[in-house]
Design a protein that fits this description.
The chain has an 8-stranded antiparallel sheet, with helices on one face. The protein is globular. α1 packs across α3. It has one domain. 18% of the residues lie in helices and 32% in strands. The chain starts with a helix and ends in a 5-residue tail after the last strand. By secondary structure, the chain is α+β, with helices and mostly antiparallel strands.
């Protein structure tokens, strides 16, 4: 494996180590479980706090970006102040091969329950956007930049049982 690719893979594994099994947190924050107070305790005051479609979003960017990211967003469930989703925008360039090496291959469409034994992804298509990968059991979605080669962001959600 090329040294630069290996270092990216190792960095990816460290950066995203919280998402390697079902319902594990990212950086100690778990969607569906952790609260806004947990986020403040771990990362301090956000760079910006905003409302989007009735949902409070805590944004950490610039000098307050979580190491290894250019931005992290913690979206809170309305009325509960519980983290509903975490969107992470990684600083390094990460490609699909690194995602597969870290989280698993494409699901076998012939399997009865393709995500049951070990994590695998399904490719989701959205008109006008690059396809994205969804790891149901991990509660992880991986979105690609417009070029379709490199990761734009990771979305950590409550994992599917």
């Amino acid at each position: 494996m090329h040294v630069l690719t290996m270092s990216r893979f190792l960095f990816l594994a460290l950066l995203l180590s919280g998402a390697v099994s079902a319902a594990k947190p990212w950086q100690g924050i778990q969607p569906g479980v952790s609260s806004a107070l947990d986020v403040f305790g771990k990362f301090g005051e956000p760079t910006r706090k905003t409302e989007v479609k009735g949902q409070t979003v805590l944004i950490y960017s610039g000098l307050q970006a979580v190491p290894g990211t250019v931005q992290a967003q913690f979206k809170l469930a309305p009325g509960t102040q519980t983290v509903a989703r975490i969107d992470v925008y990684p600083a390094p360039l990460i490609d699909k091969a690194a995602i597969e090496a870290s989280y698993g291959p494409a699901c076998d469409p012939k399997a009865k329950d393709p995500d049951a034994e070990s994590p695998c992804f399904f490719v989701k298509e959205v008109t006008g956007k690059p396809p994205y990968l969804i790891f149901l059991r991990l509660g992880l979605a991986v979105f690609f930049r417009d070029d379709g080669k490199y990761v734009q962001s990771f979305a950590f959600l409550p994992a599917k049982a």
